[in-house]
Amino acid sequence: MLTYISIGWHPEGVHAFDVLGDPVRRRILELLTAGEQAAGAVSAVVQDEFGISQPAVSQHLRVLRDHGFTTVRADGARRLYSVDPEPLQDIDAWLEQYRRFWTQRLDALGTELVRGRRARRSSSGRPPRNRKPRREGE
Amino acid sequence: MLTYISIGWHPEGVHAFDVLGDPVRRRILELLTAGEQAAGAVSAVVQDEFGISQPAVSQHLRVLRDHGFTTVRADGARRLYSVDPEPLQDIDAWLEQYRRFWTQRLDALGTELVRGRRARRSSSGRPPRNRKPRREGE
DNA sequence: TACTTATATAAGTCAACACTAATTTGCCTG
DNA sequence: CAGGCAAATTAGTGTTGACTTATATAAGTA
Fold first, then answer.
1. Does B102 touch chain A (CB under 8 A)?
2. Structural contact between residues B1 and A48, judged by C-beta atoms closer than 8 angstroms
């Protein structure tokens, strides 16, 4: 049947979340905030921290590349990666529509404080259900 | 074997990306920006747009709930969902370390414009690879 | 009470994805 | 050129997670 006709909401930049879903990839990006790094350098750190192989890291680098999170530059046999902020900016833009939810909350809090109110929260807490699914490790 | 011993980098707010990796869940959140909605209302829209079943939507709602993206309130048999911005705020905070990459770029661009330069971009274009897998629709 | 509506859960299936080991490609140096 | 790094690719495997259908729970209504 397949409907889902690609409505508006940020045609691009949407996959960005998929990419960032992986902790290894987030870590790689963080390493790159220090500036341009050779694949090998990144790989060394990540292999050590996560205990995965070089090809695994290379594959993550590929995903980041393919989705525009990094740019690469050749230096002899080495590949120098840097952050390309574009997809991150897309996420930032996507977040925009939610910012009011916390600024609102801050404003309300501010008001309360000014008025010296000691509001009793209506205990809207979500039910104690807290099954945090699979992934046995932890 | 499971190494990965939970290093530092943002202990919380990290699963958030996993949750937002799914377009259905992003859509649900967007629907909730209009305000508190009954599960059924959300479900109707999403079922129509994505062509998935009610339980599927319910499961997505569960994920959003379990990860703190929504709060729920009972109204008779209905469940009224609202946005809880906390995890989104976490993401916003995580983005912070990357903002300089685009503000920087803007500054540089500004400088260039002022100087009347017509910089030639180093054609760092990423390869045309564009595999976009899952959810055949689109 | 029985019937319906609203929503969640259970159990099972299938495809995607993060790995691994093996190999390839390319550059650099003796 | 041979050999050795640096990095990417290939092929195969196990686990996860997004779905399905069927069913359960619970509240409203006749």
1. yes
2. no
Which domains does chain A carry? Answer: 1-116 (1.10.10.10)
Q: What is the pTM of this model?
A: 0.76
Residues paired with residue A83 on neighbouring β-strands, in sequence order: A70
Both tokens of B42, joined, read 């959300």
Model confidence at A103, in pLDDT bands (50, 70, 90)? confident
Residue in B with minimal Cα distance to A122: B73
DSSP label at residue B53 = -
Q: What is the spatial distance between Cα A106 and Cα A108, in angstroms, rounded to a whole number?
A: 5
Q: Do A53 and A47 meet the contact criterion of CB atoms below 8 Å apart? A: yes
* Residue A42 reports pLDDT greater than 50: yes
Q: What is the pLDDT of residues B59-99, one digit of tens each?
A: 999 999 999 999 999 999 999 999 999 999 999 999 999 99
Contact B49 A7 (CB under 8 A): yes
pLDDT digits (tens, 9 = 90+) for B15-40: 799 999 999 999 999 999 999 999 99
**Alpha-carbon gap, residue B73 to A127, rounded angstroms:** 9
Interface test with B, best of A10, A20, A67, A138 (most B CBs within 10 A): A20
d(CA A95, CA A6): 19
Among left, alpha and beta (phi > 0; psi -120 to 50; other), residue A13 is left
Please give the angle made by the CA atoms of A104, B28 and B130, to the nearest 5 degrees.
110
Residue contacts between A and B (CB atoms, under 8 Å): 120
The label of the residue with tokens 């260039």 reads: B112
Residue in the structure block whose two tokens are 């750190």: A45
Q: Report pLDDT for B62.
A: 98
DSSP state for residue B12 in the 8-state scheme: S
Q: How many CA atoms lie within 13 A of B60 on its CB side?
A: 22
